[in-house]
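Colleagues,

For the teaching module next term, I've prepared a clean inverse folding example: a structure given as tokens, and then the sequence designed for it. I'd like students to try predicting residues themselves before seeing the answer, so please don't circulate the second half yet.
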């Protein structure tokens, strides 16, 4: 007797690249594009909250501390979502604990808390700051 067991083959989702405007609308544009893609993969709103907050923080940091945020890249494969934000600056991101009196400077602390891993890589023309999330179910 032969069992009829279907196997689901994991197929990588085509990566998303969002060209970012060089103005304060960049975080909203990035969130909109990422949200649309992830909802299209079948994720629900609750699964998106941490990712969308990290998108906002990474793009805002690129805008405020980098030099000209250029693009956001998103890839998803076998439950692992990777966000990468490119800017043309050479200054590397610095994780630091803000004092309780500071109203800002918590972006990377949030990204670190929300993601499985984060970091940066220098490349020709600038750097990528990235974060990885585990999101099963798409």
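(Answer key — instructors only)
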């Amino acid at each position: 007797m032969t069992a009829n067991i279907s196997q689901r083959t994991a197929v990588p989702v085509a990566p998303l690249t969002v060209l970012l405007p060089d103005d304060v609308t960049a975080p909203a544009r990035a969130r909109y594009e990422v949200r649309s893609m992830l909802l299209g993969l079948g994720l629900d709103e609750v699964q998106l909250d941490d990712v969308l907050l990290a998108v906002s923080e990474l793009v805002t940091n690129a805008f405020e501390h980098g030099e000209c945020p250029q693009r956001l890249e998103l890839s998803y494969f076998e439950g692992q979502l990777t966000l990468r934000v490119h800017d043309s600056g050479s200054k590397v991101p610095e994780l630091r604990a803000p004092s309780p009196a500071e109203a800002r400077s918590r972006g990377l602390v949030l990204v670190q808390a929300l993601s499985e891993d984060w970091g940066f890589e220098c490349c020709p023309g600038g750097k990528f700051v990235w974060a990885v999330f585990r999101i099963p179910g798409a």
